[in-house]
Amino acid sequence: MEQRRALGIENYVERAYLAIEKDKAAAKEDENK
Prior knowledge:
This protein is an all-alpha fold. Helices cover 94% and strands 0% of the residues.
């Protein structure tokens, strides 16, 4: 049970990180226009 919760947190962190990276990439695209 404890392990599964840790895994869920890891997944959440990874999704948040990917979302931030996507936002950064989008912001860079806007700057290049």
